[in-house]
From TrEMBL:
InterPro entries referenced in this protein's UniProt entry, alphabetically: BolA (IPR002634), BolA-like_sf (IPR036065)
Matching SUPFAM superfamilies: BolA-like
Name listed for the protein in its UniProt record: Bola-like protein
Family under the similarity heading: Belongs to the BolA/IbaG family.
C-alpha cells in the first residue's frame, strides 16, 4: 500500500498487520521523505530462530527510510536511531530481524 503524506511517501505491505502499522507510525517521527516497509516474514517461517516463536507473521522486515534526520550521522548511529524507535517491537512484540537502508535525501539524489 502506498500513501502520500505531504512530502512523505510511505509504502507498506498490501495488508499491513498491527506491528507493521505501529512501526510505520513510529518511523514517521523521523520525518522521512520516503519510507518503505516490506514484511519478509514468510521467507523466514521455517528458520530455526523462528520455530516456537509466538510471532511468525510479523517477525522479519526490510525497511528503507530517507530522512534529513540522518544528516551528519554514520550508518551505525542511523541504525541505532531506528532500533530505539522500534524498541518495543523488537523486545516485546517478537520482531526478530530488521534489514535497514537509511539514507538522506541528498544521498539518494546523488545516485
Amino acid at each position: 500500500m502506498t500513501r502520500l503524506f505531504s512530502t512523505m511517501l510511505v509504502r507498506t505491505s498490501p495488508n499491513p498487520g498491527p506491528i507493521e502499522q505501529s512501526m510505520a507510525k513510529k518511523l514517521q517521527t523521523l520525518l522521512p521523505t520516503f519510507l518503505s516497509i516490506d514484511n519478509d516474514s514468510q521467507k523466514h517461517a521455517h528458520h530455526a530462530g523462528v520455530r516456537g516463536a509466538s510471532n511468525v507473521t510479523e517477525s522479519h522486515f526490510n525497511i528503507e527510510i530517507h530522512s534529513d534526520n540522518f544528516k551528519g550521522k554514520n550508518l551505525p548511529l542511523r541504525h541505532r536511531m531506528v532500533y530505539k524507535l522500534l524498541e518495543d517491537e523488537l523486545k516485546v512484540k517478537g520482531v526478530h530481524a530488521l534489514q535497514l537502508k537509511t539514507k538522506t535525501p541528498e544521498e539518494i539524489a546523488k545516485q
